[in-house]
Amino acid sequence: MEAQAQGLLESEPLQGRDEDAVASADFSSMLSEEEKEELRAELVQLEDEITTLRQVLSAKERHLVEIKQKLGMNLMNELKQNFSKSWHDMQTTTAYKKTHETLSHAGQKATAAFSNVGTAISKKFGDMRNSPTFKSFEERVETTVTSLKTKVGGANQSGGSFEEVLNSTAHASSQSTSGGPRQAEEELQC
To answer: Crossing angle for the helix pair 132-153 and 162-189, nearest 10 degrees?
Structure first.
């Protein structure tokens, strides 16, 4: 008997199979006919109340939709309004304001830093262009271009742009491949 009493007083929650056993148990044999009638009447009353509440809720939802349509509100407008309100609420928070200030300040510093880097790079290129090494390199390129002009262009010593020299070189090269090497040599000797 003590083991039976212990089983009835367990404080642990019901497990899956315990719930199935309770659901399939027939408690109607423990109730009197009068209690059964009272429970049946309460069940009918609850079902009626639930049905009534569903009908009222449905009517209120239809009325809500009608009002929104009259006001020109639709789902998209509601979403926009909710988003705008949420965005405004977020922007007024202290955390947002502090973050905005910090990022703004950081952006200004980054802009200034990039400007300084750009200025420094420009200055370095200017210094490099004025350096003796670059001047020497520039003179060598000019000498080479002049030499190419003389060899390719023959007597024409008018100077010309680098592009003209490249074009005349390409022209001479195409003639040498079409007429053979002997013809190119003859043209150069002329």
So the answer is: 40
Amino acid at 160: G
- Which tens digits make up the pLDDT trace of 93-149? 888 888 888 988 888 888 888 888 888 888 887 888 788 887 788 888 888 888 888
CA angle 24, 30, 36 (to 5 degrees): 90
> In angstroms, how far is the first alpha carbon of the chain from the final one?
133
Q: Is there a contact between 141 and 124 (Cβ–Cβ < 8 Å)?
A: no
pLDDT tens profile 76-92? 877 888 888 888 888 88
Distance of alpha carbon 46 from the chain centroid: 53
Separation CA 190–CA 187 (nearest Å): 5
Q: 35-38: long-range contacts (C-beta < 8 A, 24 or more apart)?
A: none
Q: How confident is the model at residue 54 (pLDDT cuts 50, 70, 90)?
A: very high
- pTM equals 0.30
